Structures are given as structure tokens and as C-alpha cells.
Input
Amino acid sequence: MSSQDIPEENLPSEQETGHGAVEGTDNPFADPGLPAHEHRIQDIEERAAKRSERVVAMLFTISMLATVAFIASYVAIGVDKSIYVFPIGHISALNFALGVTLGVALFCIGAGAVHWARTLMSDVEVAAERHPIEAEPEVRAKVLSDFADGARESQFGRRKLIRNTLFGALALVPLSGVVLLRDLGPLPEKKLRTTAWKKGLKLVNMNTNEPLRASDIAVGSLTFAKPEGVEEHDEDFQQVMGKAALMLVRIQPENIKDKRELEWSHEGVVAYSKICTHVGCPISLYEQQTHHVLCPCHQSTFDLSDGARVIFGPAGHALPQLHIDVDDEGFLVAQGDFAEPVGPAFWERG
Output
């Protein structure tokens, strides 16, 4: 229906201004203004306000407990442990625990802050006229006054339980990030000083997976070995071999210059770590005439006839030697672990 179909007596008069209409304009509609303020139950009853205060404090306390649980999970749960979670399936127990506890800690802080604002802070809406962007002294004074009013109306000073639990939650949450600094690298402890080699372990050929005899190693040849009992299908095979990888070379005893090297060898068979002492690359190049081994990464060169000392390249120290002998069956066996840490130098080396 158009306005032409409406009787004239029902149309608003141009001379009349309705209730709330702006005079001097053609707008016949009233300005509704702000609705009347309705007090919340917390504004009226102190018992209800106390209940809200306890709810907020409980959320902040749960946040603190979740943060403590986050740290405890990080320390107590192993990296390799997994759990079944329906419907996701098998997942890392550590990741699941860290995600849940950190999520609860952050959620409870946010939920507590929202509940605090919705139930205890002032909810009176105030309409303010726009003002110039520059801050006049009166404006600055008003801002400070409004800030003081807001602090008073938030009851931050009055509600000590909320204030103290909020401080506790905010103080503990950053600790979640602090403990993550441990992932910059685990403390080496004695892990870098020991390998899988022990007294009596047979030297097993990496290619044939058979125990080695001295007769299996020809003069001038390079053979790679692993400790007895270490299999390629083992879950930690790469970690074990990252330190225990061994290379065997047979040198004529009269050509061995280093006294200890000769004592730790058997019939000219010497055993040295395959891990370069520069950055840990595997050594695989051998010069028969000079008895030198070369690291293919940065060309560090070691003399296997003279204690595997460094004769060229950036490596910092000689290759560690493994003391070997033979058992009653004639198989080559280790007489213990390496005397020095394997691989690149580290800060505890000494």
C-alpha cells in the first residue's frame, strides 16, 4: 500500500512534531534514546556478588592448577609415550597433556575475566558527545577521573579474592613458556660420554650381520661394525649407531706409530669411531697407502696409523679408539667403551 492510499487524516502533519522528534527537521520518528538501566542481582544482593566473586576466583584457581599440571606433564611424561584418545586414535601423551592443560589455563583466565566484567563491573551505558581529537586539560582531567571511577566500579580493590587469584593466574601462566626453553636442548648428563659398547660385546659386520674375526679383515680394507645385539629394526637404532658406529682397518703392526693404538689393536686390526669429531658426519673414505681416512663433509683427515690424529681440516681432536681383543672362539670383542666422548666436542668435554 502506498502513501497515496492512506487517508490524509492518518498522515502525520508537517507542522506537528511527534514525541521525541527533533524540532526543525522533517523526521517524524522519535529518538528512542537509551533503555532504562536494569540492575543485576549482583548490584542488589551482596550474597549474589559474593557468589560471582567465588566463581571468578575458582576459575583463576583452576588456571593456576592447570599451569602447574602443564609443568608437571612436561617433566614427568616421556616423549615416546602414546595414549589412545577416542575418536582421534593413538597420539602423543605428552602433546595431549600439554595441549589440554595449557588450554584450560588460558580458557579459565579468559572466562574468569568475562564473568567478572559481566556480573561485578559496572554495566551502566553512558552516551558521550564527540569531542575534538586534541586533548584539552579538561579532557585529560576527565579521563583520569573516568579511570578512577572505572577502577572503583570494577571493585578491583574491594574484591581482594578476585584480585589475588588473578595475580596468581597471570603470574603462573608465563611459566608455561619458560619451561619450554628446555626444548632448546636436553641436558647431556653422561649420555654423550657413553655408547652401546661394553666389555665382551662382539663386533658385528654391518653388511653381513655376522660376528667378525680378525681374519675377515684384509690389510688395507675398511670394514664397518656395530655392537652385538643392535638390530636395524630397533626403534632406537639410529640413535645408538649415531654414537656406536665403528670402522675397522687392518694395518701392518710395524706401521702403527702410536703405542696405545698398538696395544688396543689385535694383529694390526684397529677400531675407531666412524663419527667425525668436527660436526658428526660419518667417515667413509680410506686411503690404503697413507692410512688416512677422510670425512666427506668438510675434508677433515685423520691418520689411522698414528692414533687417528687430525692432519688436515677443521676437526678439533682425534677419533676415539675402541680397545678390542678376541674371545675364546676367535671373534673380535670390545674390551669396554670408548675412552673419550664420540663425535664433536661439547662443553663438558675434559
Remarks:
- The first strand starts at residue 82 and ends at 85.
- Residues 46-76 form the longest helix (31 residues).
- The two ends are 98 Å apart (CA to CA).
